[in-house]
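Example (one chain per record):
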Amino acid sequence: MVSISKPKTLVLLAPGALPSSDVLIPLNILRVRKESTYLTFQDSQHDAIRHHFNVEQAVIISVASFLAQADRGSYDLLFIPGTADVLGLDLEPLANVIRSIYGGGVGLDIISTGTARLSSGLLKERVVSAASLDLNEQYMTTARAWDADADVIRDVQFWTATDTPGSLKTLAILYKAARHGGISSIFPSSVARKHLGYSPRRLVDTPTDTSTPAALASGEDLAAELADLSSSDVDQASNLIFHFAIRLGLEGFTDACNSVLLTLLKALPNALESLGEPCMRSIEYMWESSGQRPSVPWNVPSLEDLDRWELEVRSSYQLPADEDREDILESIKLRITIDGDWYLTPYTLAGAITMALDAGWDDQAREWMLKLVQTASKSDMRDVWTFDIARWRPLIRLSRTGIVAQALQSLRTSSVVALDEQRVSSQSIADLPWSTLVPMLDVLKWEQHDTLIKPPASPSAIKQAEERLGVALPEDYKQFLLVSNGIEFMPSIDAPGFQSVQELEWDNAAELGLDEFRVDLGCKTDPAEYDRLPKMGRVLVVSDPECEEQVWFVDPETVAEAIRVLRAEGRSDGVVGQPGWRAVFWASHMPDLRWLKSFRGYMEGLAQKADKAGGR
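Predicted structure:
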C-alpha cells in the first residue's frame, strides 16, 4: 500500500485583519495545520496568529525575515487563505512575495481560497506575477466567471476554491488525491473546456457484447470444434474460450465455467500455460471463492500465494494506505460527480471498488460494480473480464453475490438489434475507400475546429520522409496520408491526432518510458517467455506527441525478432502473424499495450464510432 506524504507547507497571510479560522480547513484535512510555516506581514500578529488559529507550536515568521534567508528550505505547497477585505488590500507587496516564493520553488503548488482566489490572480494569464495581480475590471469579470462555473478549480500547479467549508473540504480532498496521481491537470474539464478550449476525456460506449451462457455449446460439442481447428487457430481459440469461461464464472455459472475449462485442457493440455500466469491467478481466485476447484494438472496455490498475488495487484495500481483510503474514496466520488471521470487513474474503477469494499462502503461498491460490468459488456476486447475484473480478488467475491448477472440482465433487452446493426456497419465501413473513410471522422472534431482533416500529403513528401527515416512506410498508413496529412485530436472518443509526414522521426523507446515493454505482439506469455522477447527499441510515433493517447509503429526488424522467439515457444503463424510493421495503441492510464491488427483496422474502428455519432 502506498502512503501519501504530507506536503511541506507555507501559509501566506495577507496584510490586515486575520480571517476566520475556517480558512484552514484544507490544512486540517492534509494534516499539516500545526506543522506549517506561517508568513505574516505584521510582526505584531505573531501571538494573535498562534491563538486565533490554534497553532501554538507552529513556526511563525515575518515575510521580510523569510525572504532574507539564504536557504529558505524546500516546500511543496504555498497556501494563501482569503483575506477579510480584498478591495482594501495593497496588492503590490503581496504580488512581490508570491512571485519571489514561486520563483524559487521547484514543483511548488499554490492554493488560494476565498477572496485570495481573486487577489492572488492565479486565474489570470495562468502565471504568478505582479502583472497578473492587477485586479482590473476585466480580470475581476473573468475570474468571477470561473467562480460561477466551479467551486474548486485546478490549473496545473495552481488551485483555487471559494471559501465555503464544503468547497474548502473538496479542494483539500482533491489536492491530496492529486499528490497520489490521477487528478487531471486541468480540473474540472467542463470549466477548462469553456474557458481554455480544452475537451475532457470520456468513456465511450462500444457495441455491446451479447454472448450469454445460454448460447454456450456443450462440452462435447466444444471438444469437437477444437479438434477441427487448424493449428494456426488453436492459440486464438484457447484465448477466447478461457476468457469466456471467466465470464461464466463471474456470472455465477461455476459448473459451466469448469466444464468449459476442463474441455479446453483436455483438448489443449498446455492452454493455460500459454495464456500466462495472470490468467492462472484469475481462475484460482474463482475457485477459491466458489469452493469448486476441479482436478487440474497443477498444484493448489497456498493461501500465502493468493495473498501475495493480491498484494501485487493492489501495489501495481497504487491503492493507498489505510489512513488515506477514505479521503481517496471521497476524491473518487468527486471526480465522477464533478468531472464524469470513470478512468480514475491510477486506481481504475476496479481498484476503486476494491477500496470501497475495504472501507465497508458496500452500497457504493455495488453501484460502481454495476457500472464496471456494464462497461465490460460493451467492450470488444474479450479479455476485459479477466484483466479488468477477475484479476481483483475482492471483485471475484463480490461477483458471487449475483451482481454481474444483475448488471448484464439490464443490457440484454436491445442487445440483439445492436449487434446486428454493428455487423452491418462494420462490413460497410470495411469496404469504403480511404477517400470516403477519413472524412467520416469529421463529426468527431472539436467544436472550435472547422474540420479535423488536413490537406493531403504529396507522394514526393512521403518519399522524402521514407528516405529520411531509411524505411518504406506501411502501405495503409501511406494511403491515409494521401487523403489527410495528419489529423486533429478527436476528444469525444479519446483518439489522438496524427502528425504530418514531414514531422515523423524515430523515437527512442527508453526516452518515452516504453523500454520496459516487450514486443509480445499481443500474445499472452509467462514471465520467462516475456523476458526472452525483444524490448522496444526505436519506435515511429505517428500520433500527436501532445496527446495522452499514442499510436506508434514498431519497426519490421524488431517484429521479426519477436516472431522468431514466439514461434520457438510454440506459437503458430496464425497467432503471431506475418513479418512487417506493427501498430500499437497506448495511453498512460493503460497497464498494457494494445496491439492493433493494422493501421487501417484502427481507422475503421474510429469510423464506426463516428458512424454511431451520426457521421454518415
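Caption: The longest strand covers residues 9-13.
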